[in-house]
Amino acid sequence: MQLVKFRRSPVDDPFTVALLRTSEVFLGGFESFNDPREGIYNSRNDEWSAHENAVLLEKRRIRIGCFSDGSRMHTDRGYDLMWAHYADSFKGVAIQLRFNKELSEKLREVNYVEWEELDREQRQGEGAGLSPEDLLTRKSRLWSYEKEHRLLIHSDDLVRAKTDGLREDSSGTFARVSIDKVLAGCRATSETIDRLNQIRKDVNGDWAIEKLRSPWMPPTVVDP
């Protein structure tokens, strides 16, 4: 599967630079999601319960990485929204990633459901039977343009060091990836391309650098 991470230009975003230099992606908690209603539910019409509290604590033990299915990037116009929202209106980059076998087995495709169904789960208790992993991979269909897949890493994987490619320190939790390609948006500046080439040279990377000619045309390879 071809998964991508949309980011701002490495000229403007130190987190993009860190990903390219270290080949590591940051894994965060669900409470930092863009949609504050994600991953929640109430079991009895807004009344708190011991079960809800247990599920909440379990969800907080899961670290999450968010990525997009990039396999139809050049034929599906829905990706224009990803470029606009997450890659600084086509001035940023889409980084094509690969995961090792153990991490690949922990990837889950997001299940997009109608808002009304999600609302019933969250406000009327219909989500009480869902596992923490299911709750963390359900979103309103309004977000379906993201074509999202999530890497779910339980804290036990870190404590027991059972999963190759994981690292945790005082700054957070990170997963090791391989970078296959960096695609620059059609509005990316020459400074962005130069910075990509410099980073690739610094880390002795073998990833390709391409640039969109326009939102509706295939990319072209950028010479170093």
Automatic annotation (TrEMBL):
Domain of life: Bacteria
Name the record gives this protein: DUF2971 domain-containing protein
